[in-house]
Amino acid sequence: MSTIVAELEAARIDVTTVAVDLFDMYGVLGEVTTIAAQHAEDLVHVNVSTGTKLSAIGAAIACMELSTNATAYYVHPEEYAHGDIDEPLTSEYADDEALPGYPIDSPTAEQVAVMDYVHRKDTTVYTPKKKDLIEFGKQAALPFYANSTAKSDKAAFGRLKSRILDPLTERKYVTVEHVGRRKQVSLTELGEDTLRAFRHKLSESPECGVVTSPRNRPGNDDD
């Protein structure tokens, strides 16, 4: 890696390095989608032939995400080393090829905003309820609330269900648990990982702001 950086800098090419755990697939996925979003006007190419298998999978999946304008490619080396673990496993460049795309549909920006809100508000003493999510949608001007002319509680709950909670529960990103008359919303482990991967969408969409209320604010006991 240091050799590659030195060669690029010698060619007067600006280099920025980002530290990431190559055994954390969702961490790599999140870094790639974030960097691609920061360079939306540039051509972004991602080498998936280096690192670990998990990092390669994470990078490849990131490039498949519909809003990620990046191309994954694989480098074919000219030679493979055999037997000597002190030598690089591969050497020289023979060819490369772009990987075929199989687009995946990631959570929308407002869905990510709600997931982030649930993540921040869910503590050992309080779990967000659907009514909290409505209030957050109102304060953050999320499209499911702000873009509708009908502002009644019934209409707001219907849009929250159809645009946010139903898609997220179908993908197993969140759970909605009935506790008495209340419905509490929590992130699943998959939801936590997905939030890490697509948190950059919070900054991509100005309408998906972050609510400024304290983390442990008591909520209303209604739905």
TrEMBL record:
Provide the species name: Halorarum halophilum
Looking at the record, the residues that make up the HFX-2341-like N-terminal domain are 3-80
Could you tell me which residue ranges the DUF6293 domain spans?
99-198
By what name is this protein known?
A: Uncharacterized protein
Q: Which UniProt keywords apply?
A: Plasmid
Pfam families assigned: HFX_2341_N (PF19810), WHD_DUF6293 (PF22665)
What domain of life does the native source organism fall in?
Answer: Archaea
